[in-house]
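Task card 7
Instruction: Convert sequence to structure tokens.
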Amino acid sequence: MSDWTTDTQPGLLRIAAVTTATPDMAASERAYCDYMGYRVVERSTVPQSLAESWDAPAAAGAAMVTLAPEGETDVFARLVETPAPPGYRPLTTFGWNAFEIIVDDVHTLAEKLTDSPFEIIGPPRPLQFMPSIVAMQVRGPANECLYFTMESGDRESSILPPPAGFVGRTFIVVVAGRNFDALLRWYVDKFELRERPVRQSKVAVIQAAQGLSPDQTVELSAIGMRQRGNLVELDAYPTGPGFPAAERPVIAGHLPPGNAVATFEVESIDPFAAEAIRSPGTRDEAVYRGRRSCVLRGPAGELVELIEVR
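Output:
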């Protein structure tokens, strides 16, 4: 099923990595490896230049573990040990709020995650507008939010990418802000992402996290990158008197807690270099493999890392 409302040549090619800031590296690594089947591809510490590119100089020297899903060799999940700020609650602040991962069988995964470090906050259920797609939501040991999603229908015609293993790669990253149009314009105007219909949706996990009424909707849409199934979901959290959504608490100099960084591939970073937090540079860690990268600050404060493929 395709419901694109624009047809462009997107500047973001695909999601190359996602980074979670965790206060307990050992616990997070065990959870991802034991319950999701991810494997360690690199153990290191955060170089000062990388920390500075994230505008997180205090992260220099922190433990960093890079993981890969089953069947994947060039897409990663990265963990960075980071102290947790007091009072942070997932799905209540602006910035990256969830990483969505393609899976083969979400119902079997839900059974496996029972009594695991992953707390199921939304059990498997069909999507409202695409019922063949079944998703569940969990809170991980670092207070990160992960969505696990499967296509229960025809996978050849699905908008979702096929899973390479039981638990596959991240294919959607979810960013929340105060204003939907500001999010949309920044991503579409800068990266020419393909647009889809904008929905006013009831999102149970957001309603529960923020204590919203059952009738409260969230304005959202998912906009497309060049590679099949790779999307950025834009959520506009309700704000104003009586609504709890706010800026994310961050310990000075560190990464944001939980869902911290989304990393994308682009053909060239030259068009974005002037806006980067630090000048682009070549990096040799597993995520970069000798390629140039830089980081932008998005409209909701999110860290948008770009890696050049050429």
